[in-house]
User: Fold Glutamine--fructose-6-phosphate aminotransferase [isomerizing] from Methanobacterium formicicum.
Amino acid sequence: EMAQKGGYPHFMLKEIHEQPEAVRNTLFEVSDIKKIVSQFPEFKRVTFVACGTSYHASLVGKYLFEGLLGLPTDVILASEFEFSEKAIDPHALVIFISQSGETADTLKALRIANKKAKTLAIVNVLGSTATREADYVIFTRAGPEIGVAATKTYISQLTCIYLLAACMCQDEELLEELQKIPDCMKAVLSLEDEIKEMAGKYKDAQDFFFIGRGFSYPTALEGALKLKEITYIHGEGYAAGELKHGPLALIDDDVPVVAVVPPGKSHDRTLSNVQEVKARGARVIGLGSEDDPVLSSEASDMVEFPHQIPELLSPLLYVVPLQLLAYHISVQRGIDPDKPKNLAKCVTVE
Ligand code: G6P
Assistant:
């Protein structure tokens, strides 16, 4: 097992560090994706269906498909899909995202959707059930993932979704931008020591909030999920604008808030939420651009990203420190992050 871990103490950490390579490998899918897209009929809308981390990748897909293609896009949890069955548009492309291709809820939804509309499965495991049953298939080439908490497969799913959107709207510029992601991600991974130190400061908190808007909202949800899964700390991901409708009542100096604040459309309003939670005593971990003096002065701790990353691409990079934060808190709390209690890598029951 030590040899399989390639010198890392856990599979999860190895898989986090494999992410630049996972993106690079998944980018090779572009020619297959172009072929698939050329066979598409005209779609009037897109519906994503998934569970867990794959659901968060789907949410990024919503912002992308609506923003780039202007296509109305829904995201439905696979376990809730049967309740929307009657409303499935026959002119929709129904996209199933699944690392394993075997999740029971996702397969059940796929079987319902197959009777109604064209289906596309974005899957990591070759030959899995979803790949045999969907009309179209795209592979995320992340390689095998052993850690129960998904990391590199999430990044590969996102990469596929960006490729798909770029191919559907023939956005060559976006395809080029994506080529830069692996190197940017390496730069983000080099912040690990800082994040490990941060983990030490926050590891005893009992509750965390993760906030973001637009493209950063799924990142907040995924950061909170990673924390819950492997540290057993309560982490709640929230659309920053919803804080005032309830959760603000829970904020005090015992509740750290992780704020995902890349430069762009969402920046100023999320920053004002940072000020609101600070006024109630919260310590804020800010994720933002290296040249954001206002955020860095408000935040107790700051993770700095290269300033040239466009907001649209930020989900691919901003999630990485949150994976590392959860990982290091987990280890510092004496938990084995590869084998969280009560959870399975693949859930084959409904
Ligand atoms: C389980 C795993 C998660 C995963 C989810 C969906 O809960 O622990 O990491 O996101 O299933 O799995 P899938 O294989 O369909 O992506």
